[in-house]
Amino acid sequence: MSKPSSRKGLSLRWLELFQVCARTGSLSEAAKETGLSISTVSHHLRALEDHLGVELFNHTRRPMVLTPKGQVFLRNIDVALQSIRKATAEAATGDLAEARYLRLGTIEDLDSDVTPALAVHLSRKMPDCDFLYHISTSHEILEMLRDRELDLGITTTPPERMRDLQDHPLLRDPFVVVLPANEGAAPLAEVVAGKTTLPFLRFSNDLIIAGQIEAQLRRLGVSLPHKVECGSNQTLMAMVAAGAGWTITTPLLFSRAKRFQSRLRLHPFPGKRFSRTLSLVTTPDCARSVMELVNAEIRASLDAQVIRPLIEMTPWLEGAFALIDEP
User: What positions does the domain HTH lysR-type occupy (predicted)?
Assistant: First the structure.
């Protein structure tokens, strides 16, 4: 490796590309993510190494592997780049009307009413901003946030700690039992224990909500046959409405199934209650002004469009289905 360059400063672009290459382990993946050519990415990496006078990668290995000095360098610039991005974001959005780009991910649970209202509100408050809205599962949104492909996300809070992301709890969404409206008078506890002929219709096991439900059933010592698994709440509600079985879901999800509600009956979960939490999750460098704007509008929309109408229809949800107080 040559001696350190006489140039006085490091290029921020070099550091950002080094960070992407260290994460992806591939020049081609880094090029795809940044929109540059492979040769350009390689040129910038070599320029950084020449400037420092050290090998940061073992260039004979595939995927690319950091050298010991490269690992130390990465740890240090991760902190520095995070601070730079945060400062840049805050400066760019101190006046929200001047914001230029925002990437927001939401779970499908909110795409009927809440997300459209949020999109309209943000477009008015940030008129010159280009928006990217991504609807997906909580797992994928969290991964995209970790990879800095999104700025904010609204997700189900996972059981594990979110490490480098910032969690702002929004909604307590209790689990409830949904039966066909014409189902007989079998005790609810017997239905949940699998002691009736009505089959249990469950969420696909790759969803966070499915893991939460299964964990609670295990705690109760209940094991139900895997007759039907589905990734769509709307499909589950349609099947229950048709009398094909019963399910465990949440008030938020039930509220989306308006076309089926006349043929459904909502019941409290028997025995020990449990719930999930929806959170606004941000990257550490997301501007606080943007986070506060999204947080306030999401809370207002959830309260007006979902919580209050459903509690009027189902008063026993009062207090259980509610916004979580901000610290």
Answer: 10-67
